[in-house]
Amino acid sequence: MATQPQIHGHADERYGRLADVFRENFTARGEIGAAVTVYVGGHRVVDLYGGTADPRTGRPWTAHTPVVVFSCTKGILAVCAYLLVQQGRLDLDAPVTRYWPEFGQHGKADIPVRWLLTHQSGLPALDRPLTLDEVLAWEPVVKAIEAQTPLWRPGTAHSYHAMTYGWLIGEVIRRITGQLPGAFFRDALATPLGLRTWLGLPAAERDAVAWNVAPPPDPEPFVDPVADRGITMGGAFAFPADDAGLVSFNDPAIQAAGVPGAGAVSTADGLARLYAACVSSVAGPPLLDRASVDDATVVRVRGQQRHGPPDTGQRWGSGFLLHSPPARPLLGERSFGHDGAGGNLAFGDDAHQVGFGYVVNQMQGMGDERANLLTAALRSCLGG
Fold first, then answer.
1. Class of domain 7-383 as given by CATH
2. What residues does the Beta-lactamase-related domain cover (predicted)?
């Protein structure tokens, strides 16, 4: 019989079903440590956490425990991009070369910024070998992207740009603002909103971070050389874990560098509050206007990827994962966000004025239903 977990925090009475599912994730679905936070109409209505942050020491998960959230980072960068659009500093349909002239080499001159966000640029992997030190230094990856020929004619297909997405969008942000994306996010969003969310973890927060536990081996792993080069940056690091089961992103150097497509560190509240602020009044008017949310929730790509596993029905907007039943159902057609390797999920929805964040340290693989069961419970609590 599974040990009953110590669950802490609160859930408003209306959200009891979501609290039940969160507890069941521990008793029936292998959860080690996790947190879930929900804002509705700018108010925090669910804030639950429990379990163990570091199984090596037994350190408990607290209200302030952050963890690497992997590709939830992509949604953070997309929010930053839409802020620049609203400021009149970025046009998603302009060529990348307007902001980053050197990008246009080797057949890339006509690629619009939007295709960087929609995984259509043909740059999911790089031919140039890179070391981990080079990946963490930023500039070598940018130079490798500039020298890269697209792997297909841009705009004609899509494949998930697991890692390169971060430098592609991040360098556009840097060229416009003069700041690396982590610094821009900190100044424009994290500090004003009071988020415990970082893209480039401060040294003072290192000991608070939860320890990620590798997922069990996939009995039928998807193998594609391009996808493998893309997710490991050509072997610069193992992803998600090395042969000994050590999750690469537990490395303090990787967390401090803020790998821009996968390296954000956040609490559940940090992610939920960010998305809540996008669609409701949290610390002032909503960050994203109606036009931005309308644009963000347009389905831009779907179907079989050029280099990817069999299609599961996922739908992508400009930088965001959208409501994608049965693979990743959110609340509905106005939902936009991103999930992250191992089980993390964050999204906003302006129809319900919801911001949702769920973070974990027991990574799981195929068949992981923890986040989907939480969102299904949230839909039922909201009357959907």
1. alpha beta
2. 22-373
Cα–Cα distance between 244 and 253 in angstroms, integer?
Answer: 19
Handedness of CA 146, 147, 148, 150 (dihedral sign): positive
Mean of the per-residue pLDDT values of the chain: 96
pLDDT in tens, 337-358: 999 999 999 999 999 999 999 9
Q: How many residues does the chain have?
A: 384
Gap between the Cα atoms of 225 and 153, Å rounded:
19
Residues 15, 18, 24, CA angle at the centre, nearest 5°?
145
Dig out the tokens for 313 from the structure. Answer: 């029905």
Put simply, whether the predicted model's pTM sits higher than 0.85 gets the answer: yes
Give me the helix-helix angle, 268-279 and 72-86, nearest 10°: 30
Which amino acid belongs to residue 66? Answer: P
Model confidence pLDDT, tens digit, residues 239-250: 999 988 999 999
Residue 219 scores a pLDDT above 80? no
Of the candidates 341, 337, 338, 339, the one whose C-alpha atom is nearest the C-alpha of residue 362 is: 341
Residue type, 291: A
Please state the domain extents for the chain: 7-383
Segment (H or E) for 23: helix 16-28
Distance CA 187, CA 168 (A): 20
